[in-house]
């Protein structure tokens, strides 16, 4: 009888085996979610080591996150033993790029001990350059320049490679010049940013044959996970390294390409077959992760996209339960409902680790965090900060704390010069000295120092204004409801304006978070009660060992799986995002749909989709329409359940109106005045009356009145 399979081949299906055993020549594994692409890559690595086709140091394996790299290392260790200890080239593109660059730094004018700047450092540096060049910083913010430079680096372009057309968008064609200055400055500082880790290495490989040949010899085998999300510089880099031996195996899924906004190019899948002629393409079709209903639901949604490479997926798992679509009244009810479902699951013997809540945008985590804290459900936020720990939230809270608790020195220090108001370190140091000398809090010292001549006239004016502002805000606090006060403070301090002036993609998210903060405040009676709540939340850092519910964005969930996934906020304007809708085009909508596909396919056994009929947006209640993706779920794979009658007919009514799926459906379409009144919104003062509202007044009738206002039509 034939010898038994080595452990790493056991249980693999035929095409997976093929992917593992085809070690020579280019291989592209193109397959849908949950078909074992990552599993096959892991086994392939084990195979190469087990059969001694290569030493651990001769294999380059790229994962999308550090966590995925750790997991792969562990798994291979279990399969073939400790050899993996010495796998120096297993990691993310950035980690591998940094390691290589340290060895050859001098070739691009750096020393091997160069520092890697984070985004904040990068921005500070750009600001200095913008000022030195006497550009108007308000018009041409550092973040915009930073974003532009990143995008060039993602494309593998050094300053001298830019065309005239490339840099028109910044400061009337001075982008290229600023980019060159920035690179020079980095060199002088013996520093580089994240983009340089790959770009410098690419430059070195392009210009130093001996280095290129050294790595082409070294890397007998190259493997890449999540290949659909590689950007150009990564692709060029891989192509150079693999050109000699051509033993490269990439695995990916075009339907899961969700990082085009960061320069990822799904076209790299097509380029692969062109650049590596004769590449073996392997398709995996058996899904081991999800039940047929979950797969059917995901497939139905993604089928609406055009230009797909197309794949078949099947599974042998039991049918399981249909995807549940739950319509709820509003955001708080959504959070409550998810909490209830999780507690029910726990009673049925599931662990908290089995549950994930997947949000489209970071700010959506807040309602769940608050709810879970209230009911004592441990949770973790993956791939981001917990809501109240985000920089802009801490800044805003600092303003509120100085108003409510004038002796809060830390808070004062945090915002004294944020946004910039010409209060340098020197001036702040003087305030500190006076505070220490007289044994008073910083706010008091700030007021007293105005009577001295210790400050420069400019610092004195700024500090005087700030002290005046705080006095006024405190007085306002006596009259205004506290969420309104917060809004005023953020406006009058220039804090909101600071982020509005910021043109980076990230700034919009920060503004959304600030709005979400004000929304959260509406749920508390007083500013004091709210701040008390926040300090309790901040203190809730439970130990790492304990089982926890995971809350994360869909982007961060790529490659992961959970027994039960709650997909929340499936409403037009939330998911697909308002930004995608505003941009209009088919491309951004299709990327949202791929996100929906990624989201659904994270679930192993249970997928629950939630949408709320009302969201508070910028302080106003707005009725929302269920996401078009809800309408795209095949009927046989989902069941709609709603806490209010009329929920199902609601989206049918809404969608039957629209034959063009790309028609502009922005927030609040189809909402009539009657609906607003019924929802408890005062039309004359939609944001007013910051009392805690209760909505338990016959929601069913309210919803039906909306549905009938839009008229019932044919089923979509
Ligand atoms: P994604 O596209 O989401 O990254 P993937 O294709 O990488 O998914 P994996 O995460 O590798 O899929 O595998 C999905 C699940 O299926 C995992 O739990 C894995 O252990 C399991 N699996 C993979 N191959 C097999 C197999 N041959 N037999 C049994 N289970 C398998
Ligand atoms: Mg995977």
TrEMBL record:
<dbReference type="GO" id="GO:0005524">
    <property type="term" value="F:ATP binding"/>
</dbReference>
<protein>
    <recommendedName>
        <fullName>DNA 3'-5' helicase</fullName>
        <ecNumber>5.6.2.4</ecNumber>
    </recommendedName>
</protein>
<keyword id="KW-0547">Nucleotide-binding</keyword>
<feature type="binding site">
    <location>
        <begin position="31"/>
        <end position="38"/>
    </location>
    <ligand>
        <name>ATP</name>
    </ligand>
</feature>
<dbReference type="GO" id="GO:0009314">
    <property type="term" value="P:response to radiation"/>
</dbReference>
<feature type="domain" description="UvrD-like helicase ATP-binding">
    <location>
        <begin position="10"/>
        <end position="291"/>
    </location>
</feature>
<keyword id="KW-0067">ATP-binding</keyword>
<keyword id="KW-0347">Helicase</keyword>
<keyword id="KW-0238">DNA-binding</keyword>
<dbReference type="GO" id="GO:0003677">
    <property type="term" value="F:DNA binding"/>
</dbReference>
<dbReference type="InterPro" id="IPR027417">
    <property type="entry name" value="P-loop_NTPase"/>
</dbReference>
<dbReference type="GO" id="GO:0016787">
    <property type="term" value="F:hydrolase activity"/>
</dbReference>
<dbReference type="GO" id="GO:0000725">
    <property type="term" value="P:recombinational repair"/>
</dbReference>
<dbReference type="InterPro" id="IPR013986">
    <property type="entry name" value="DExx_box_DNA_helicase_dom_sf"/>
</dbReference>
<dbReference type="InterPro" id="IPR000212">
    <property type="entry name" value="DNA_helicase_UvrD/REP"/>
</dbReference>
<dbReference type="InterPro" id="IPR014017">
    <property type="entry name" value="DNA_helicase_UvrD-like_C"/>
</dbReference>
<dbReference type="GO" id="GO:0005829">
    <property type="term" value="C:cytosol"/>
</dbReference>
<dbReference type="Pfam" id="PF13361">
    <property type="entry name" value="UvrD_C"/>
</dbReference>
<comment type="function">
    <text>Has both ATPase and helicase activities. Unwinds DNA duplexes with 3' to 5' polarity with respect to the bound strand and initiates unwinding most effectively when a single-stranded region is present. Involved in the post-incision events of nucleotide excision repair and methyl-directed mismatch repair.</text>
</comment>
<dbReference type="Pfam" id="PF00580">
    <property type="entry name" value="UvrD-helicase"/>
</dbReference>
<keyword id="KW-0413">Isomerase</keyword>
<dbReference type="GO" id="GO:0043138">
    <property type="term" value="F:3'-5' DNA helicase activity"/>
</dbReference>
<feature type="domain" description="UvrD-like helicase C-terminal">
    <location>
        <begin position="292"/>
        <end position="559"/>
    </location>
</feature>
<dbReference type="GO" id="GO:0033202">
    <property type="term" value="C:DNA helicase complex"/>
</dbReference>
<keyword id="KW-0378">Hydrolase</keyword>
<comment type="similarity">
    <text>Belongs to the helicase family. UvrD subfamily.</text>
</comment>
<dbReference type="InterPro" id="IPR014016">
    <property type="entry name" value="UvrD-like_ATP-bd"/>
</dbReference>
